[in-house]
Amino acid sequence: MSKWAIVCLWICVGVYAKCCPPIMLFSGSSNTELTQAVADCLGVQMQKAIVDKFNDGEIQIRILENVRGCDVFVMQSICVSEESTVNDNLMELYLMIRAMKRSSAQSVTAIIPYYGYARQDRKMRGRVPISASDVAMLLEVAGADHVVAIDLHCGQIQGFFHHTPVDNLFASTIFVPYIARLGLYDPVIVSPDAGGVERAKTFIEGLQTLGISSKMAVIVKQRAEAGVVETMNLVGKVRGSDVVIVDDICDTAGTLVKAAGELKEHGARRVFACITHPLLSGPAVMRIEQSCLEELIVTDTIPFRGEVPSNIKQLSVAPLLASAITLIVNGESLSNLFRYNQ
Q: Which of 59, 69, 161, 254 is deepest in the core (most CB within 10 A)?
């Protein structure tokens, strides 16, 4: 290679480095606090973008940074927030990805702490959508090159993305060390339904790596209709033990509070719960405050809307997401994020 070719190469590298910071992190409006916390963990500035609405409610997006040839990260939970609906925030994410692609970004990674519409993951009756799959199709059409989520409602959602790789991180890596420090007596990990057994098993394995032995119990539910539990039956022994209910979503908290009461009736010593995504709709906050729950531990994948009672404890997923972004930028495996530390 000639001297002038080498000089030109260095000039190009310098221009690229100047135009493309190692991490370009943008935020939708659903959870800017979490995005800022991730930026703080990474030691970077959140990049500038206008994410607003026109007078008629249409979403207004404008990227205020040059992203040409850059690898960008867009963070947005598909949830309800103070000023936006679930659908608003989904459309924000879609349009932000499209704006990045139209601005010639080299790649767009969608960081989706809470993946909305995930509970509609199969056809339970005729003439209904499989919404979790349809949202995946929408994000792929938008041009997302990579998706990172936390505790997807069901693992098969990763398979709904046919062309885009998906990394599903576990909030248990945050919950388990916290629970380990509580000094629980003869702990029992409880799955609130048969579908959550794998999640509870992962939790037990996490405690085991920290030297804490625990057992499992399962609550078998029969629903009268969506969101309404008719009967509950406990499989397993909880008498005299501290128990931890493990689940991914708390919506109206009716099922959670009823499960906690059921465990108390079966002789549980104390009842805790670890729930990743605190939707906390309708009477949820009041129900939790008046329940027998010693503590409900949640994450900040969804921001609180108003005051919460003292028995709700929030842990941040910002360090987990910051680590994931760093590994992605460096082209490294995310497998280390599934390990547990005191």
A: 59
